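Researcher: We're teaching a course module on how sequence relates to structure. For the next exercise, students receive a sequence and then see the predicted structure as tokens, so they can try to spot secondary structure elements on their own. Here is the exercise chain.
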Amino acid sequence: MKIDIHPNRKRSMIRPLKAAGHMKLLLNDKEDTEQVFHIMEALNGNNMYRKVCEYSKSDLGRSMMERRRYLPEILDDHETLKKLPENTVGQAYVTFMEREGLSAAGLVEESEKWWVHHEKFDDDIDFLGCRFRDTHDLYHVLTGYGRDELGEISVLGFSHAHNGGFGNLFISYVGAWDLSKSAPKPKLIKASLREARRHGRVANALVTEDIVALLAEPLEAARKRMNISEPLAYKRALASLNDIGYEGQLSAA
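Model: And here is the predicted structure for the students to work with:
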């Protein structure tokens, strides 16, 4: 498969000081999702090019990039997803998104705050970046990690195995360090992140999945097929945090 890389695209540079500044803003406001995109840009270097090359060598990856399906329209069509059988990935996804007050379009809007300062090329790198963005909340549903701080840390650790990039690891490790400062059992926070990374390394990559087919699949069957294990360390850490009034809760069954 020939890779589509725009000729005007420049090599990405690693900028740790910029990442540190945006990480400070993110720690001050955990809901400021825009900062995540800045951190990724500052630390991921040419990871996206490497991932495009990697996925172009597999049947699933080639199919994904050739179809170029735009996921937010599919994921935000809640009326269609609600018509799926009970206990499917799609049903669980709608329940999760509506409970959390989220939408795929909302994540796109946050990323556009970053995009406004950058040139769009509409090549395979831009497409894959959007694919990583648009599948983020599906990771929550499939892995069982909630939208609490520990859940977000764990999802990033899990997805790093598939999405790559030092940005994911930086956010997850700094986030775990920050949360550990107020946790009654800091070792449980670190254990959750270690478990998430371990589970991510053996699970099938979500980004190359046929998302329409996945949404119609029974949730537990999808988890088994994709080799996604129950996040036991996360649940233990969350229970410990809840003992001191932590606001986090399990957001996916």
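Model: If you want an answer key for the exercise: Confidence is low (pLDDT under 50) at residues 249-253. The CA atoms of residues 33 and 110 lie 6 Å apart.
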